[in-house]
UniProtKB/TrEMBL annotation:
The name this protein goes by in its record: PilL protein
Organism (species): Pseudoxanthomonas spadix (strain BD-a59)
Amino acid sequence: MVRYGRYTLIELAPSAAQQDLMLQVVEVSAPDTLHATVADALRHVLRRSGYQLCTGQDTDSLDRLPLPAAHYQLGPLLLRDALLTLTGPAWDLHVDDGTRLVCFSHVTAAPARPLPPIDPDADVQTFPLATEVQP
């Protein structure tokens, strides 16, 4: 600790986000384009983070996924959470801190189990479809 000014004490140690760059807080404001992809948004988020998006078959397939409207504005979030949010649960995040590369691979999923049959006598709650209201 060192005194800085009259009433302020400052710890002389790097913050957690400075030591582990995946803990830095980011706010995503993707450029509003009609054809933005998930890979475009990932590159935008990584631009000033110190990391780069790696190239490869799995990562290149993110260029074919359109960016959902819900992902044009995100945050503030930790960098790791923002990357995982942009790709979704079907992708695993791989970080190489030595080369500062961020890669993604498809999650290998177990075969889907069939849904149980619906009991017609069960108490089921239904919701009506939303309709557009004109003023």
